Predict the structure.
Amino acid sequence: MAGRNDKEASRVSLGALVAAGMGAAMGLRALLREKVSFEGRTVLLTGGSRGLGLVLARLFLKEGARVILCAREEVELARARDELEADGGEVLALACDVSDRVQVEAMVAQVHERFGTVDVLVNNAGLIQVGPLESMTEEDFDEAMDVHFWGPLYTTLAVLPEMKRRGWGRIVNISSFAGKVSVPHLLPYSASKFALVGLSDGLRAELAQDGILVTTVCPGLMRTGSPPNAFFKGNHEAEYAWFVLGDSLPGLSMSVERAAHKVVEACRRGDADATLGLPAKVATLARALAPNVTAAVLAYINRLMPQDASTDRHRGRDSETPLTRSWVTQLTRRAAQKNNEELLH
């Protein structure tokens, strides 16, 4: 009898543990998939004056959020703020270099003074340097890391105390599929975006217990209109040509509006990861399932690309050719006009 009772007690205990585990899992799943409204929320967008950041600002304002735009260029910020305010949005535009921790802390202090706690932080500020490894310097890698890794870390650390105090927050880190698959001629960009993916995934694991959900976004090519403002080295005209053509072609690239909608929805649900665009998803899956084959394909692509070790740096707008001014790139030019990417000084 004692043995039978012990077995029954063990089964009851095991059943209770299983039930408790399932309940905890369901509770965790509910926490991780909680859909939220952005009505009345305060959203801080770095790199918010143009491109994807500006399109995200438009969407968050349509949802009823208060939006803070942060960027380095004051002229761009003023244009973006004027556009958004003309549509009736509540907008604060603050000039800030996110790679400078002192500037970041001062900027977040201004936001707290004006709006209180930041509810949603979107780390979107970025830059692109294109060219072969031989054309890149240590300063190029430093610059990419400053903007893509240290910038998101500084802003996150600045908003975390208030988010933790309230037990709620959303952080969205805009990385890239190049942060999962290192693309030839984008090495500083890819290396820094890999670092951001690692930071973002680690933050997700550690902050969920505080009610703060971190989403890592890895888009493929998007038609933001940004190529004219990217930096090109080596044979800069040839580098610009392949980059802007890929950015312009439907199928290879996606519209920035579609990408922005997916980012907002991933933030709303609190998704851990959002890889955007079929080419990005295929490349990421191929890298995970067949790393040797993927590496061989990328090495072959690299051999087909321009090879020039010049370290001179040029903006995309200074690297135009008749081909890049043709109808083939019209989608990128339209996006530049729409998303405040023109006339950067």
